[in-house]
Amino acid sequence: MSVASAEKSADVRAGRPIAPARRSRLSQTKREWVAAYLFLLPDVLGLLLFVGIPMVLSLSLGFFDVSGFGTYTFSGLDNYRRMFGDPLFLGSLQVTIKYVVVLVPGLYITGLGLALLVKRPAPLLGVFRAMLFLPNVISLVVVALIWKFLLVDRIGVANVLLSKIGMGGRSWLGDPDLALWALLGVTIWFLMGFYMIIFLAGLQEIPREYYDAARIDGAGAWRSFWDITLPLLKPTSFFVLLVSLVAAVAGPQGFDLVYVMTSGGPANATNLTTYYIFDQAFRYSNIGYASAMASFLVLVLLVFSGILFALTRGGRFDFD
Amino acid sequence: MTLQGGTRTFGVSRRSLIKAGAGAAGGLGLFGPSALPLISPRSAMAQDAPLTFWQFYAPGGQVASQTTWFEETVASWNEQNDQQVELVYVPNSDYMDGTKLPTAFAAGEGPDLFIISPGDFLRYYNGGVLQDLTPFMEQEAIDDFFPDVLANRMVDGKVYGLPMEVEPMAFYYGLRAWEEAGLTDGDIPQTWEQLLEVGQQLTNDQRFGILFDTNPGYYQNFTWYPFMWQGGAEIQNDDATSGMRDPGAVAALKFWQDAVNMGVAPRTVLGGGGWDVAPNLSTGYCAIQNVGIWAISALAENAPDFEYGIFKLPIPEGGEYTTDLGGWAFVANSQGKNPEAAAQFIVWALGTMSEDSIQRGVAWCTEAKSDMAPRQSVQEVAEQGGFAEGPLAQFAQEILPGGRAEPRVTPEVYNSISVAIQAAMLNGTDPEQAAEQAATEIEAFLATYDGAPIL
Fold it and tell me: Which among B18, B327, B361, B368 could bridge B69 via Cys, Cβ 3.0 to 4.6 Å?
C-alpha cells in the first residue's frame, strides 16, 4: 500500500471529508514526454551551441574567402574547386586513407584480443585491465612527448633496444617510410584500452550457457569464438567500427599526436587531412578554404557512416 | 553585403556574419538579442583598459634575464604614462608557427602590441593590422637603424615594426666532441665539403656530426636561406621569376640531403626544435649545430659548464659568404584599443635617440639576450661593453659582416619552399625536381600577388 492510499484509508476511517484529487491538465503520457524533453534539454542546448551552430558557420565559411583579419568575400564554390587541384590536400587524403585502413582494423583486433585475454578470471586481473586502459587517462600531448622521446634517432629507447638485435639506427619519426607506421603504433597503443573495455562489456553480455552447450557438443575454443562470440558481438562490433572510423578520420588523437610528434612531416608523410585543415586555417589564415575542406571531410564521414548503417539496417541486428 | 570593384564579390564583415549566425540561433528560440554582447565582448571593453602586449618572454619566461628586461621596460612605461601596458606571456611553441596570434586576429581580438619575425611580417601587413610607426619617430632615429634590418619592416617608406635585435646564424660545436675526434682549430671547415667531412669524423653510433633543423616551419626555411644565397640564388628574381630553380638553390637542397643521407645529420631534433641548443648540442645528441646567436645566452643559462666554439657558415665551391640575420620586432595593432598609444610605446621603448632607449637596446643585446644590435647607436655602446670580447665579439667581427636580413615572404611562398626542403632533405626527392616544383608554384602565386613587396 502506498503512503497516499494509507492516508486516504485513515481519513475514511476517521470520518474526515476526503479532499478531491487535484487533476493535472496533462495526461500521464504527456507529463512523461515533458519530463523527457526537460532531461534532454541541456544536452540539446550544448550540442546546438557547441556543435550545431559552429558546423553551420563552418559550412557557410566554406563559400567565403576569409582573410583571417575580419574580411569575408563571397567566393561561391572556389574553395571546393581549389581543393581538388591542391596536391597537398590530395596527398593528405591519401595519408588519411592509409591511416584509416590500418587503424580501424588494428583497433578492432587489438581491442577484441585484449578483451578476450582479460575476460578470464586471473590473479591481478583488475590491475592488468587498469594498466591497459591507463593511457586513455593521460593527456595526448604528454603521450606524444613521451613517445617522441622514446623514438628519437640513435639514442631513443626504441633504437637502443632494437640495436641489441641488430635493428637499431632507424629514424622512426624522421623517415617518411616509417613515420606513419610509428604514428599508427602509438595511436593503437593509446586507444586499444578504450576499445578493450567496450568489447569486454559486449563479451559479458553473452550468456555463459551458450559456451557450455557448445562445449558439450564438442566445440573447441576456436569454433566457439567463430560461431558464438563473433556473431553475438555484432552490435558491439558495429559500434566499435563506427566510433573508430570517426576517430580515425577526425578524432583528436590523430591531430594531437601529429602536431606534437611530427608536425605533419617528414615531407608530409604524416600530414593527415585534419592536420592539413589546421595548417591552412591557422598557419596560412585560409579559414574559408579550411572550412570547405572540413565540410568535405564531414560529408565523407557521413557517407561512410551511412553505408555502415545501411549494411546493418540502422544498427539493428538479429541473431538467426 | 556590398559589391566591391564591380566584381561578383561580396564583402561581409566578421561581425555581420557572426550576428547572422547568432540571429539564426535566436530564430530557433535559443537566444534573445541580449545574447549578442556575449559574442562580441570587445564592444563592452573599457577604452582605458591596459594595452595587451603578447610575446614569449614574460612574465614567467624560460630565461630570467629576458623576462626581467620585458618586465622592467613595461614597468618603466607604466610609471610615466596613464595608458598602461600589460604583458601577456604566450609559450614559444604557441607563438612561432602557433595558433594563438592568428586565432586572436581572426576573432577580432588581436593584442594591442605583439612581436613578429620577418617571416610573418607580410601576413599581418597584408591583413591590414599593422600600425604605421613613422609619425611617432624622429628621422634621426629612423636613420639610426641599419637600413637592411629596417627595410623588411617597411612598406612605401613607412615603418611598421621596430626590430629589437639582429640574430645571425652560425655553427656551434662542442669542444669535448671536437677534441675526442682528434680535431683542432685548423679543422674548422671553410667549405660545405669540409663541413661534411668533419661531420663524418664527429659522427658515431650515439651522436650526429651536424644538426640542421628538420621540422617543417618558418624557422627551418630561415636557416636554409643562407645556403641558397651563398650559391647566388634568390627566392624571387628581378624579372618576377623564382630563383628556386637556379643552381644555387638546387645545390643548397642537395647539401642538406647529402648530410642526411650520409648519416651525418639527424632526421629529427630534440627539444623545441633546431633553434633549441641545450637539448641538442650540450646533451651530445649532435657535435655541431646550425643555430643563431641567441644560443650564447641559452647555453649560459641552461648549460653553463658546456664548452663550445663557434664558426661562421662554410660556403660552397665558388660561393660567397653570407648568413641570415633574423630577429624579432615590436609591432602595434592598428585595430587595437589605442593604436596611437601602442605606437608611442614601441617608439619610446626601442626607437628614440634618448639615452634610455639606447641603453635599453644595449641591455637587451648584451645582458638579457646575446644578440647583435639593430641600431648604430646601440652597436657603438655595445662594442665598448658586451661586444668587446668572447662569443659576441666573434659574432660582431666575423659572422655578422656580409649577413643578409631574413627575407619577408607570404605564407604561400614560405610553404612552397618548405615543401621543397622537406622533400629533398627527408624524402630523397631529386633536389632539382623539388626546386622546380617550388619555383613553378611561387611564380604562379606571384603572377596574381598584389600585396606588399616580397624582400
Answer: B368
Mean pLDDT, all residues of chain A: 88
Q: For residue A175, give the nearest of B11, B267, B415 by CB distance.
A: B267
A73 contact residues in B (CB cutoff 8 A): 4, 9-12
Indicate the CATH number for domain B167-325+409-448.
Answer: 3.40.190.10
Cβ distance B122 to B223 under 8 Å?
Answer: no
The pLDDT assigned to B66 comes to 92
Q: Is the reported ipTM for this assembly greater than 0.95? A: no
CATH label of the domain that carries residue A240: 1.10.3720.10
> Per the CB < 8 Å rule, is B17 touching A53?
no
Instruction: Tell me whether B393 touches chain A (CB under 8 Å).
Output: no
Query: In which band, very low, low, confident or very high, does the pLDDT at A19 lie, cut at 50, 70 and 90?
Result: low
Tens digits of residue pLDDT in B43-55: 444 457 999 999 9
Residue pointed to by grid coordinates 564554390: A77
Contact between chains at B108 and A70 (C-beta distance less than 8 A) = yes
- The confidence score (pLDDT) of residue A316 equals 66
State residue B213 phi and psi, 5-degree precision: -65, 140
For the residues of B124-168, what is the DSSP string, one character each?
HHHTT-BPP-GGGS-HHHHHHB-HHHHHTTEETTEE--EE--BEE
B357 to chain A, closest Cα gap in Å: 32
pLDDT digits (tens, 9 = 90+) for B54-88: 999 999 887 888 999 999 999 999 999 999 999 99
Please check the confidence at residue B19 and state whether its pLDDT lies above 80. no
Say if residue A17 is preceded by a cis peptide, omega within 30 of 0.
Answer: no
Which one of B7, B18, B267, B276 would you mutate to disrupt binding with A, by most A Cβ within 10 Å of its Cβ? B267
Is the four-CA dihedral A238, A240, A246, A249 of positive or negative sign?
Answer: negative
Shortest Cα distance from A6 to chain B (angstroms)? 45
DSSP-derived letter for residue B315 is: B
216-255 in chain B: CB under 8 A from chain A: 216-217
Between positions 333 and 352 of B, the ones with CB within 8 A of A are 335
B51-166+327-397: CATH number: 3.40.190.10
The pLDDT assigned to B175 comes to 97
